[in-house]
Model the fold of this input.
Amino acid sequence: MCGICGIVSSAGLPDLAVLRRMMGRLEHRGPDGNGYYRDRRAALGHTRLAIIDTSGGAQPLCNEDGTVWVTFNGEIFNYVELREELTGLGHSFRTRSDTEVVVHAFQQWGTGCFRRFNGQWALALWDSVEQRLTLSRDRVGVRPLYVREHAGRVSFASEVKALFADPAVPRAIDRKGLDQIFTYWAPVAPRTAFEGIEELPPGHVRTYDNSGTAT
Done:
């Protein structure tokens, strides 16, 4: 269990102080370390529970030229086999982590890489060249991922309370989400108990282009 969070804004440089507060709300998910990446449009945060490659798998993690970055919560069970296939295709690795396999698989196969993964995950990939954010969640929905979209700005996190670390995010109950809690024990994704915040449904991939538009 790790914590992931991030902000992508079409309006300019994301606020690093806000990102750090988001990471602070997720510290209990990743007591073994933390890190962040920021450029002029994106900021990715990670709090790590180290399991695979405990010395070399720190996140956010990038490809060889630093153009694709990932913050990842989960485990890819078939990462060894995928690593061997990607090595045969010319990819080189500097860690032994399944996280780096995610980056290279995305480079090789695009969003088709998620069909090849056997595992459980919630992740965000930032392509700094194309200025594109990709969010993905495992088929069963074992790993959580919450999203808020507003005015060309996308925020995401493993827990809703991390999104609330941003004072610009309003706190309001979604009555339909509350009704689903009383009916089904939990809201049905993408609805949550909070207005303006949704849960990425299990098995979904969502991409935001450089204008912040989702596809």
In short: The CA atoms of residues 43 and 54 lie 23 Å apart.
